[in-house]
Design goal:
Number of strands of chain A: 24
Protein name (chain A): NAD(P)/FAD-dependent oxidoreductase
Keywords (chain B): Membrane, Transmembrane, Transmembrane helix
Largest sheet of chain B: none
Largest interface: A-B, 54 and 53 residues
Strand content of chain B: under 5%
Protein name (chain B): DUF5368 domain-containing protein
Number of domains of chain B: 1
Radius of gyration of chain B: 18 Å
Helix content of chain A: 25-40%
Distance between the termini of chain A: 20 Å
Distance between the termini of chain B: 54 Å
Radius of gyration of chain A: 22 Å
Strand content of chain A: 15-25%
Helix content of chain B: over 70%
Number of helices of chain B: 5
Number of helices of chain A: 10
Organism (chain B): Azospirillum oleiclasticum
CATH superfamily of the largest domain in chain A: FAD/NAD(P)-binding domain
Oligomer: heterodimer
InterPro entries (chain A): FAD/NAD-bd_sf, FAD/NAD-binding_dom, Sulphide_quinone_reductase, TAT_signal
Amino acid sequence: MTGITGPLSRRTLFKLSGAGAALLAASPAVAAPAPPKVASKARIVIAGGGAAGLAAASRLVERLDGASITVIDRRKDHYYQPGFTLVAAGLKPRDYVVSTTTQYLPRGIDLIEEQVAEFDPAGNAVVTDTGRRIAYDFLIVATGLHLDYAAIEGMDTALIGKDGLGSVYAGPDAAVATWKEMARFAETGGVGLFGRPATEMKCAGAPLKYTFITDDYLRRHGNRGKSELIYCAQNKGLFSVPIVSEKVRMLFRDRGVKVAYEHVITGIDPGRKTATYKTPGGTVEMKYDFINVVPPMRAPAAVRQSPLGWQTGAWAADGWMEVEKATLRHKRFPNVFGVGDVAGVPKGKTAASVKWQVPVAVDHLVADIAGTKAASVYNGYTSCPLITQLGRAMLVEFDYEDNLTPSFPGVIAPLEELWITWVMKTMALKPTYLAMLRGNA
Amino acid sequence: MKDLDPMVFVAVFQEMMGPLMWMLLALAVGGLVAFAAVLAREGRLVSRRLVRSEIVGVFGGFAALALMAWVTLSGFSDAGGPVDWLLVGIIWGAGLVGTTILAYAVQGLVAPDRGHGMTEPQ
């Protein structure tokens, strides 16, 4: 952004960023005048220093005076995960998504560079992988999720970037490796397989985006005609929000992307370049020249094996945290909150959700300390700038009830492929995300 | 979106541009102040200088579009709906107006004495 000159772009940027901020914005706590700090000696532990953990730490520091706040995370790097797709599309370098946790950690926070190995909510303590037991008065679980590549038979993340095997999620290096394979595929054409797991997942729009981006690159190389793109949907829809699912169905029809409904990947043979899918009619094998593998996603083992997960229902098996969907407070352990990907709520494994979830959870936690009641509510807001070709995206925003919740009704249509949405995605989203980490947005 | 706090905008812009944000703000405010000062000193708009500034401004508008294309790895040719064309117009218009004001102010400051000679006949 070093080339911006004159007052010209300032105005434009202001307008654009207004829209960009809206993607991640919508925090009732943000607009309220800063409340006085609450004096407290409470011990607060935040398990996980990703987007949700850092945002929670920043906000707690602003709200509390004298509290002991500890973030536990072994990984030193911080990943801007919404940028992974752009890296895997060859549009941004690896550096775009990698920074360090300490860059965003506010003063007055203790960082323990270990990993929580055990949650003991009945004993109000966590145990790290070095065996250290840390007691707390309040716990915020922001561990993110576990990419269960091992659940796909024959899958090896070391093979990402070889023989047509791609997987955007596995990390910055995997995103770069996936781009190299996809770029090669765009030059040769062939069969491209896409899809998503049957589990809950982060940013359910990402596998769709990558299908559209690959389609566009094939067209740009003149190889779309000799290629076949197949999207393997895990159920009978393409997106959990019905109106968005219909729109994507129409776009896939327009782009000639075939859809194999109720196809869930169970295995892969990188040597033979075949993927195995579970379908209602039995096991199906499909050949590929390029595949974007999206693994099943579950709560991290430490959460899954703890009493924090759902005990019954659809989310019990994968261990997602049993939290109230409006407040992110644990249903059985009221001094525990779950934010970000690990939260067992119907929607919202995105940074845009974190943006709204964290202030709500922090509001309720601080109210507990102050002996008051908080009124803030998370309505399931999630946002996805769904890229439909290079240079255009649909701004899809929705809530728990599958309602569309456009930030600019009548101006930016939610189901229209627009440049302005692409502009927001490439320009304003990362700054808004970084401001969120610092508790400023 | 429920609320938009101006401080959120400031925070986002700081993340986006860093120190450049304050330099741009200074440039914008400086340009407007200089323009107002030139206007106040001369007591009128010097038409020929204004026309010249507007010509520069037209290029400024295109420069703004080029800048956006560079920053967003795309371009106005990707416009897909009315709001996109509106955005293209706003970018171009903002570039034009900003550059025009700056160009007028700079010319007025660099050649203050010649300003009077360029006044259109009344």
